């Protein structure tokens, strides 16, 4: 009898944090919370509660997937820290998952050309061009950041179907017209868990030190004032 494979997925790239627990390919527990500054520090409690909901013993966890970016600076730090802390204490492998690939993976049953997109720094977006064929995701570009104006110009000239999952600022959504379709943000943590499961079948467990956030930009800290000369 095969040992059941429980995989945890952690997604903290946007203002809605989520966590999912999957048994093989089936979702068995999940939750999501819209994060405030105060609650972000307590998200580990939601992660542990989700594990306890589906697991009789945390040691049964076979692997953890965590979205490493692109995404919000603070959120990515929180997500990777939680994943690595659990992985360390349980001696459980942690797999780095691209945020944009996880977003597209939710639509793997529908073939087509996808442009997963999330907000970056002010006036810019994070995107990647990814194709889906026979339920496989195929990267056509690396992640990239570009101005919102360039995004609008590009999608306005599209003559073939293009699907845009993720998050778009409201003024940009108004520019999305057929044959381009905006799909919104799917349940990403489940995809993170499933992609980690897939990696575990083909890759050796990665070292925890390799699990790092991939920031598209750093927070704006303002101008550093020079100390007055004494």
**Count of DSSP helices?**
7
- Write down the domain tally: 2
Main β-sheet, spatial strand arrangement:
3-2-1-4-5
Q: Termini, distance in Å?
A: 76 Å
Q: Which percent band covers the strand fraction?
A: 25-35%
- The named CATH superfamily of the largest domain: ATPase, nucleotide binding domain
Radius of gyration: 19 Å
Would you mind describing this structure in some detail?
It is built from 7 helices and 13 strands. 30% of the residues lie in helices and 30% in strands. The longest helix is centred in the middle third of the chain and has 18 residues, at 73-90. The model is unreliable at 220-230 (pLDDT under 50). Helix 4 (99-105) crosses helix 7 (188-202). It is of the alpha/beta class and 230 residues long. It starts with 5 loop residues before the first strand and ends in a 28-residue tail after the last helix. Strands 3-2-1-4-5 form a 5-stranded mixed beta sheet, sandwiched between helices. A 3-stranded antiparallel beta sheet has the order 6-9-10, covered by helices on one side. It has 2 domains: 6-99 and 187-210, Nucleotidyltransferase, domain 5, CATH 3.30.420.40; 107-184, Nucleotidyltransferase, domain 5 (2-Layer Sandwich), CATH 3.30.420.200. It is globular.
